[in-house]
Design a protein that fits this description.
mainly alpha, 5 helices, 93 residues, globular, 0% strand
Amino acid sequence: MDEKTEELLKKCETVEDTSILGVCKGLLNMMAEKDVVIEDKEGQTYLEMAETLKPSDVSKVLQLALKVRESGDITDVDLKNEASRLIRAIEMS
Protein backbone atom coordinates (compact mmCIF):
# COMPACT_ATOMS: atom_id res chain seq x y z
CA MET A 1 0.00 0.00 0.00
CA ASP A 2 1.43 3.35 -0.99
CA GLU A 3 1.65 6.47 1.20
CA LYS A 4 -1.29 8.22 -0.44
CA THR A 5 -3.56 5.22 0.17
CA GLU A 6 -2.45 5.01 3.79
CA GLU A 7 -3.14 8.72 4.25
CA LEU A 8 -6.63 8.35 2.77
CA LEU A 9 -7.37 5.38 5.03
CA LYS A 10 -6.34 7.43 8.08
CA LYS A 11 -8.70 10.21 7.01
CA CYS A 12 -11.50 7.66 6.79
CA GLU A 13 -11.10 6.85 10.47
CA THR A 14 -12.29 10.34 11.43
CA VAL A 15 -14.90 10.98 8.72
CA GLU A 16 -17.98 12.69 10.06
CA ASP A 17 -19.06 14.32 6.81
CA THR A 18 -22.44 12.91 5.78
CA SER A 19 -21.84 13.86 2.15
CA ILE A 20 -18.97 11.36 2.03
CA LEU A 21 -21.31 8.66 3.33
CA GLY A 22 -23.71 9.63 0.55
CA VAL A 23 -20.99 9.22 -2.07
CA CYS A 24 -20.09 5.84 -0.55
CA LYS A 25 -23.71 4.71 -0.82
CA GLY A 26 -23.87 5.95 -4.40
CA LEU A 27 -20.78 3.97 -5.36
CA LEU A 28 -22.04 0.80 -3.66
CA ASN A 29 -25.46 1.12 -5.33
CA MET A 30 -23.84 1.66 -8.73
CA MET A 31 -21.59 -1.37 -8.20
CA ALA A 32 -24.67 -3.45 -7.36
CA GLU A 33 -26.58 -2.16 -10.40
CA LYS A 34 -23.73 -2.96 -12.76
CA ASP A 35 -23.03 -6.38 -11.19
CA VAL A 36 -19.40 -5.52 -10.43
CA VAL A 37 -17.53 -8.29 -8.63
CA ILE A 38 -14.55 -7.55 -6.43
CA GLU A 39 -13.21 -10.49 -4.46
CA ASP A 40 -12.84 -8.72 -1.09
CA LYS A 41 -16.52 -8.73 -0.12
CA GLU A 42 -17.16 -10.31 3.26
CA GLY A 43 -20.42 -12.13 2.52
CA GLN A 44 -22.42 -8.93 2.02
CA THR A 45 -23.88 -7.63 -1.20
CA TYR A 46 -23.09 -4.06 -2.19
CA LEU A 47 -26.74 -3.14 -1.57
CA GLU A 48 -26.58 -4.57 1.94
CA MET A 49 -23.39 -2.62 2.56
CA ALA A 50 -25.07 0.58 1.32
CA GLU A 51 -28.12 0.03 3.53
CA THR A 52 -26.08 -0.58 6.68
CA LEU A 53 -23.26 1.89 6.00
CA LYS A 54 -21.65 3.46 9.08
CA PRO A 55 -18.81 5.98 9.27
CA SER A 56 -16.52 3.13 10.31
CA ASP A 57 -17.22 1.42 6.95
CA VAL A 58 -15.87 4.29 4.85
CA SER A 59 -12.37 2.78 4.74
CA LYS A 60 -13.78 -0.46 3.27
CA VAL A 61 -15.64 1.47 0.59
CA LEU A 62 -12.51 3.53 -0.11
CA GLN A 63 -10.56 0.33 -0.71
CA LEU A 64 -13.26 -0.84 -3.12
CA ALA A 65 -13.16 2.55 -4.89
CA LEU A 66 -9.39 2.35 -5.28
CA LYS A 67 -9.70 -1.14 -6.77
CA VAL A 68 -12.45 -0.01 -9.16
CA ARG A 69 -10.45 3.00 -10.30
CA GLU A 70 -7.27 0.97 -10.88
CA SER A 71 -8.89 -2.15 -12.33
CA GLY A 72 -8.24 -2.90 -15.96
CA ASP A 73 -11.15 -5.36 -15.94
CA ILE A 74 -13.72 -2.68 -15.10
CA THR A 75 -14.32 -0.49 -18.13
CA ASP A 76 -17.52 1.32 -17.08
CA VAL A 77 -16.64 5.02 -17.18
CA ASP A 78 -19.51 6.09 -14.89
CA LEU A 79 -18.43 3.61 -12.23
CA LYS A 80 -14.79 4.69 -12.43
CA ASN A 81 -15.89 8.35 -12.18
CA GLU A 82 -17.99 7.59 -9.10
CA ALA A 83 -15.01 5.84 -7.50
CA SER A 84 -12.80 8.83 -8.29
CA ARG A 85 -15.44 11.17 -6.86
CA LEU A 86 -15.35 9.32 -3.53
CA ILE A 87 -11.56 9.36 -3.44
CA ARG A 88 -11.49 13.12 -4.13
CA ALA A 89 -14.14 13.79 -1.47
CA ILE A 90 -12.05 11.98 1.12
CA GLU A 91 -8.87 13.74 -0.01
CA MET A 92 -10.57 17.11 0.45
CA SER A 93 -12.13 16.31 3.84
